[in-house]
Write a structure and sequence with these properties.
alpha/beta, 6-stranded mixed sheet, Muramoyl-pentapeptide Carboxypeptidase, domain 1, 10 strands, 2 domains, 234 residues
Length: 234
């Protein structure tokens, strides 16, 4: 896989020890073009960056060396990890994003994402479940890469068709609490299991954008609930 170097100075060095990479974080750029995205990711004014950027035609650009910490995740949490910049590789995917004529991801683009993720997984022994979206680790702030990203081509997702035959055994009053227990086991944070919050809807949407993009409603319907059960048990 050919990689084009367009290095950014927006990064932190790890001094005295090797960086332990445990996650791959996928983003969309939210910009109009690859040129504009690269300019933003190199700008000292905006103070953002990533390790790799993948254009619409599948070209892979390297902006920050993997040995250094890129500024892509920001305030974030997943399982016991906080501020995931330190332990992740950030991949930006060129897409205008929500509110800016959000686009479908192209075949060449997704193919390049898959190849790069496979390469990084092999190099750092990263499990599939540790390939995450920005919306997974920062659900109250971010929506990327969004419901149009074909997660099923990158990670394991249970068959939606098979879920229709399953039944919910729990009492209706326990659905919400059990759903968020499942999400906590999967890795999601920024909610309270026993206390309803207005931001719960954003957490549910983050889960649906990844695992049930056909219905990003922010509501715990039958399929969303059963998906959470299957994934929490895996």
């Amino acid at each position: 896989m050919r990689v084009i170097d367009v290095f950014s100075n927006n990064f932190d060095k790890i001094l005295g020890k090797k960086r332990r990479i445990k996650f791959i974080i996928l983003h969309y750029t939210g910009m109009q073009s690859t040129i504009e995205s690269i300019s933003r990711l190199k700008s000292q004014k905006f103070k953002v960056s990533c390790h790799y950027l993948i254009s619409k035609n599948g070209y892979v650009y390297r902006l920050v060396s993997e040995k250094n910490v890129a500024w892509h995740a920001g305030k974030s949490r997943w399982r016991e990890f906080v501020n995931l910049n330190i332990c992740s590789v950030g991949i930006e995917i060129q897409n205008k994003g929500h509110g800016k004529n959000y686009e479908m991801y192209g075949i060449k683009q997704v193919s390049a994402v898959r190849k790069l993720c496979q390469k990084l997984r092999k190099k750092y022994k990263i499990p599939l479940k540790n390939i995450l979206g920005h919306s997974d680790i920062s659900p109250l702030r971010k929506k990327d890469p969004g419901e149009k990203f074909p997660w099923k081509l990158i990670i394991y997702i249970p068959s939606i068709k098979k879920l229709s035959k399953k039944k919910i055994k729990e009492k209706k009053s326990l659905i919400r609490e059990n759903f968020f227990k499942n999400l906590k086991l999967i890795g999601y944070r920024y909610f309270k299991i026993k206390t309803k919050k207005p931001t719960d809807r954003m957490i549910i949407k983050a889960f649906q954008m990844r695992y049930f993009p056909e219905k990003v409603s922010g509501k715990i319907d039958k399929k969303t609930y059963i998906l959470s059960q299957l994934l929490a048990q895996k």
